[in-house]
Amino acid sequence: MAEEEVARISVAVRCRPLSEHERSNMVQSICRVMDGRLVILLDPGASAAHDYLRQDKSKEKRFAFDQAFGPDADTKTLFTATAEPLIKSVLQGYNATVFAYGSTGAGKTFTMIGTPVEPGIMFRSVEEIFKGVATVVDEGTESFSISCSFVEVYNENFRDLAGNSDREGILDLREDPVSGSYVAGIREIQTESVQEVMDLLQHGNQRRTTEPTAMNVTSSRSHAVLQVRVERKGNPSNPSGSLLGKLSMIDLAGSERAAETKNQGVRLLEGANINRSLLALGNCINALASGSHFVPYRDSKLTRLLKDSLGGNCKTVMIATTSPGHLSYEDTLNTLKYANRAKNIRVRAKQNLVTPDEHVSQYEHAIADLRNEVAILKAKLAQRSAAPSDVIEGADENVLKEASENWKLEVIKNLESRTSMQRSLIDVERGLVQWRVELDQAKEMIVHEERGGSSPSSRRSDARSLEDWKDAIAQIEENIKENIETRRSLAERLQQNKTAGKELQKQLSQRVLNEDLRAFLELIQRVQVLEVERLELDHFWEIHRHQLEQRDQEIAMLREQLRLRNQHIQQQRQELSDEKVPGHVFLLGSTLAESSPVQQRGPLRVMQAWAPAREDDEDRVTATFSEEAEDFLQDKINWRALEVPMASQIKGLAQLQQNAGTSRLIAAKAWKDPSLRSIPESRAPRRPLALAQGGVAPPPARPPPREPSLRSEAREGNSSPSQTRGSTCPPLRRKSSLEEKTLAPLAGRQPSMGDMRGAPRGLLRAHGVAVPQRQLDKNLGGVREKSRLRARSEHSRLGRVGRALVTPQRF
Ligand SMILES: Nc1ncnc2c1ncn2[C@@H]1O[C@H](COP(=O)(O)OP(=O)(O)OP(=O)(O)O)[C@@H](O)[C@H]1O
């Protein structure tokens, strides 16, 4: 029974020493071998530390192999570790292969063929075979028959290196179900001694196609294959038959890069063929390593020849040779990567026992294999042409042509209409943007017209009336509506068109039979689709651009508004600070506790006033309140002096009036606080409600100007609330409790700030009856119980802020 051994391809790396030529050219050695297994490829730029571009970009690589040999290792050592174990297997009837792979000049030929001084693997293997045979023969009754062949694969053709004539024809590769691939017509030389094989090697090597290239003066331009067949008869394991062992030793041509070898003409073509077969070898290695079911052996003559060695019935050793020079970094790295990948290939070596029965069954297996292969190829062929024949069975060529022509027309139509729809969509979008801009303008015009301002249009000769603008707006809105509808329907049709396009795409393989035409049409369609996609992008870009433009306009508008507002504020502040209104106090509003339940007595209000400062004003106005109230106010209200207020903060205008040595603070304008509203007269309480009164005593040096209109509104020396009535300051009346919840005592009126009778100089005084809110009750404590609270405000500077506590007064 034939034994079967499953094993991985054994991969060894051999790094040659630097040549004399390389040394004299200062080539750096960057390949290191450690522990007999590890190969370290150093970063070729590491020595160039001054080059900042290379810093921190180390290209150092490490690989582990079954075995690794450095520059010092001789071929004998390499042979002992790699090929020698195979010889025993070959003598036991196994197939074995040793092949050297590497870039040009890396030492493949040196390793495989060697020199007379240092013979390579081929010679040593043959020698070992003969030694083994001799031993066995000496021991017993077995007999051996050894034959050799030496062939090269040059430019994808086989050439017999054992022949004598250069004109010998090109040989063909065949597959034998038992012995595997073989070159038909090749000379099989029966050898009796090592010397004969050595002669054959030398003879063949001389005939081998070698040419000097820039990388190697004796560069092998072909793959050389030495095969040794050993037939062993009389072995106890197969006494009636024989054991058939085969050793293949291959010196591959160098993998090379055209740019580096500087090859031209025929050399370049050779290089292309060498690379093609090495590429096919690489693909096979990749397929085998990844466990793929399909291995492209047929892609080159070389891989067809190596079919058994790589993935079949064979024990295989790969020797990857590398150059140590830093100039070969890329080539060496590639070689190591290949070798690293090849480590994963599994081979299944089986003893070749040849018996008559075995022979038949092997042929049967081979036929079955071939049948399988034929089936696979048939299936591939069918794949190419099955689709049309399935779909249009029996149709003649014209019909098929017509079908593909129709498909082409449909696709073109589909894409054309898509393009046109896309363009329409862009137009509609542009229209929409335009109409929206016009709509905004028209609306702006209407606002101007309604305000009675001089709108930009009213200054134009084609000035339109308000009605015209309203008509225009209606028309624009109608147009926008139509555009939106068109856009919707276009988008819908576009979507349908895309779906139809995809459907057509699916039908391509069935409707277009010619593969080239199909590829061409696919290309055309792709171009068209890209064109449409570009249009789509244009479309979105257009929309986006408009949106950005709109935003820019809005930002510009807002900036302008902000500028105007700041300008206005600045002007107002300037006016307020310029003391152009001396004697006036601006009321800053009031704090109104609207939601507080005021009950019968009304809410507590804090009123703020501000007056422009005068340089010569020495008045010191301080706020003083009743003890309890002051405690509260200091706790709860921020009394810090305000800066010049903004116009919008000013709620009213009071006048500081001086009259016979006293001043009055009179609110001369109505309060504009929108939270305040008038009390309907009918609902006004019967009793009048006094407002706070206050005033500032003028400096004695300046007699107060008299203003009759205002003087009549506030009677000097009378703090009675009823006396504050006047045309500009009607008295407040007591409100119902309901009204008091939401109504300030000053609501809608122009309150007089009261007389300034006897007020000390520099005092802004307000007094009234304090009726605090509920939540203030506890803060104010006893204040609540008091029927009257005199609140005197003293401010640090009238030029800043004056505040007066104003409360409804109960009688
Ligand atoms: N291990 C080694 N020790 C000493 N010299 C070596 C070694 N390996 C290779 N050389 C020398 O390097 C040179 C190139 O080697 P070789 O011709 O074997 O390279 P190659 O890989 O076969 O190149 P090509 O693919 O171009 O044929 C030769 O001069 C060879 O003698």
TrEMBL record:
Pfam families: Kinesin (PF00225). InterPro entries: Kinesin-like_fam (IPR027640), Kinesin_motor_CS (IPR019821), Kinesin_motor_dom (IPR001752), Kinesin_motor_dom_sf (IPR036961), P-loop_NTPase (IPR027417). Keywords: ATP-binding, Coiled coil, Microtubule, Motor protein, Nucleotide-binding. Residues 717-727 have a biased composition (Polar residues). The keyword Ribonucleoprotein does not apply. Residues 360-387, 466-497 form a coiled coil. Residues 704-716 have a biased composition (Basic and acidic residues). The keyword Cell inner membrane does not apply. GO terms for molecular function: ATP binding; microtubule binding; microtubule motor activity. ATP binds at residues 102-109. GO terms for cellular component: microtubule. PANTHER family: CENTROMERE PROTEIN E, KINESIN-LIKE PROTEIN KIF19 ISOFORM X1. Belongs to the TRAFAC class myosin-kinesin ATPase superfamily. Kinesin family. This is Kinesin-like protein.
